[in-house]
Every structure is written in C-alpha cells, then in structure tokens.
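User: I'm putting together notes for a lab meeting next week and I want to include a structural view of one of the chains we've been expressing. I don't have a solved structure, so I'd like a prediction I can at least talk through. The sequence is below, exactly as it appears in our construct file.
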Amino acid sequence: MSMQDRFPAIFFLGLGLSLIFPSVANAGTLNQVPQEASFIYFLLAWLMPLGITLVASGLSAPSRARRVVTSFPLALAVALVAYTLCGYAFQFGGVGLVSDDPGLEGLIAEWSPLDPRLGPGWGLVGLRGFLFSPHAGSAAQRTLFISQLAFLTTSVLIPLIALQEHVQGLMRFLLAMLAACFCYPLMGNWIYGGGWLSQLGETAGWGQGFMDHGLASAHLIGGGLALAGLVAFRHQGPEKGDKGTPQLAVAHLPLVLLIGALMFLVGWVAAVLSVPLAAASMSPWVTFLNTLWGMAGSIFATLFYGWFARGEADPGLTARGMLAGQIAVSAGVSLFSTWEAALVGFVGGLLLAPTMYLVEHVWGLKDRSAVISVHGFCALGGILAPGLAAFADTGGAQQLYAQLAGAGALLTLSFLLPVALLALIVRLQTLPEELRERARERAMALEQARAARERLRQQGLSLTFWQNLRRGYLHTVAAPARRLAKRPRLSDRSERSLPKR
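Assistant: Thanks for the context. Below is the predicted structure for the 501-residue chain, given as structure tokens.
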C-alpha cells in the first residue's frame, strides 16, 4: 500500500481523535450533551464495527475477505430494521420508570413477572416504542435510539463474520435478526433500560448492581451467538482443521490490521460517550487513558507470546490483542486505576492465544476469525473484572455476585437459548432416514423410466396416448420425491466431521 493510500486513513484517524475531546467535557445526561458533540460521537462510533471488519479481513485470504467485508453492510441494515421494529421498544420501553429526563415520560411499560412477589426492580423487557419514528419521538428518545446503533451493529456483525462460511442466504439473515431483535435489546434493557441486572444493588443488596460502563456485554452477546452458531452448524461449512501443530493466522494485510485496531479505539470511545445513560457517570479522560493502558498491557502480552512461541512478534496476534485489551477493560473502564487497567489488559492479551487453541483444537470449532476468543472470552473476563477489583479493594463479595449473575444471565441469553433454537432448526432441516430412502427409491424409478423412453426413441418407437398420460402423472407425483432426495441427512453431515484415516 503506497503512502497516498495510507494518508486518508491516518488523516481521518487523527481528525477523529481531535474531534472527540474538545467538546466531550460537557457530556452528561440526555439534555446536557451538546447537539454538535452528540452528532460527532454518533458518526465516529461507526469506526468500531468498521475496525472489527478491517481486522478480520486483514487476517483472511482474498477469497474469504470478500465475504467478511459484506458482513458489515448486512449487519448495519438488519440492525436498523430490527431496532426500529421492536428492538428499541424491548430495550427502552420502560426506561421512564428509572430516568427523570424530560422526553422519556411515555416509556413506562416494563414487563416484570416477579414484581408482585418480590417488589419493583425485576423488569425483563420493555413494551413501549414499537415501530419507532424519529418524527414521533422526542429528542431524548432519538438520542437513545441513535446511540445504540453502532453497538447493536457490532453485536450482529461478530457472529456474521464467524459463520460466513457455515451458513448462507436466509439462515444468515435469520441469525442476524435473532441478534438484533431479541438478544441485544434484552441485554440492553437489563443493563441500561431499568431491567433487573442494573437494580441488583437495591433488590438484592449486591454492590451497585451489575456494572458495565463500556458495554462489554455487546461483545459478549456477539461472541456467545458466534459460539452457538458454530456448535449448531459444526457439520456444515469448511472441514475442521488438522490436529497437528497449531499455527497462528497469517497477516495478509498488516497495515490494514493496524488501521482497523486504531479505528476500533476511536469508534469505541465515541460510542461509549454517546450513550447518555452511561456517559453521565464517566470521565472522558479517565475512560480514554484507561483504555490506552488496557490496550498497552495486551500489546506487551501478545508481543511476549509471539516472541516466546515463534521467536518474533506476530502482527495478527498483536492486532487482535489490541482489540482484546480494549474489550477486557471496557466494563469497568471508568473505575480501574492505571495499574488495574494495564493488568486486566495484560491478562486478556496473554490468554488470547490459549483460548484460540481451546476453541479450534480442543472444541473442534472452525473459528477462523477468532471472534469467540477476542470478543467472547475477553468480554466475559472484563465483566468479572470490576467485581474482582471491588473484592480486592474492600474485601466484600457483593459486587462480584452481581457481576457473576450478569455473566450467567448474558451467557444464557446469547448462547444457551440460541444454541437450542439453532439445533432445532438444523434438526428440522434434516430428513429422517426412512423418508429419505423412500424419496431416493422414487427418484431412481423415475430415472429408469426416463432411460426406457430414451431407448424407445432411439428405436423409432413412441408412447401411446395413455402411456404419455401416465408418464405425466408419474412425473408430477415424483417431483417432491426428487427434491427430497437431494436434501442431506444428518449422518452425511456427521461423516464429514469424522477424521480421515
């Protein structure tokens, strides 16, 4: 890549950094964020999913990179449609019960089956705001809506990148809709929309309730869905890698990896500061510096691992480590001290390669983009980090209990429930053995009749009227059998996963 090609990317990165902080000191509640600052945040936030796409494509062969790149536009379109239809309502339909900001008075419907017995604070899903329209909603509602789009697109993008070789077409679209319509909005409701996780401090006395100031949960949702998809569709797509010596991914475009990691940094900081309900309690300067320290700790860890394993630094592992460090510190980014942020990032970077080995060689899942390790495991560890830090500082385990409860709930939402649903879909797509054999027999009979007619034609003979009438009847009856015979059976997929001898 020439200097002329590099200059636009470097220029816009520097411009983004310079635009974030001059106006960020005034960030606060919904009505305190200047309109110009909010607009800049909303624009720069899209560098976060773009950075993830660049890192994934830079570590992919050219043929696969094309499919990785198309995942971003699909994720953006699905996120916008799904969030407009029902996602916004599920997430913020009851936010007016916990927020006094003007413009949110109408969002006061939260479904909570436990409230009659346990009291308020156990909301599960919002029920107001379906078919969101920017003309009908207030300025506060528009701010909430737009501030979530970049995070939502990121959650949808992660499983699409991981599964782009395993599922195609309609199944790919349905997976994206599952993430955008239900998984992310429910997570957002529990954390920022007045749901039960954010209220654990009052309802259960567990510290300050579940804490995730930097929305590491968005990455955990994406990583969990990617894991669910790879488990459910493990017999589809490319064959498993060999069980020989593990190899790190080849960095096909090292400069693209670096640009993508830095874009993710700018986009993530802008996205976090654009969420009014989170920015009110966060210092932009502490957020940015702790993010840099977490990224630096992860860089040192991945550089050391590359030197220890290969005798030289690996650019692909280092670029992934830059993302992993930022994700690991995101949940408690405004709470950590400098050394705590660096330590959390260092641990996240040091465990990155071992978790990649665990996913691909121990579990046998073909996660070429390593999104489960980078986004799933690092986000999970980052969510637990505030509880561990609070336990070390005060000796109280209440905050750790809240973080553990949140991690368990989000894993259930992003992995256990989706993997059960996807496994059911895979089972429904697979025909029973007896039905498939019957369809094969009918298809063979039709093929034999076609061969007999061809022999008659070559001999100069032709069928009678009644024979032609019966032939048309048999052709119509056998059409479903031909389609059924072409469909795969579960044993065929299982045989592909068996090791070759």
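A couple of points you could mention at the meeting. Residues 1-12, 17-34, 494-501 have pLDDT under 50 and may be disordered. The beta strands are 110-111, 125-126.

User: Perfect, that's what I needed.
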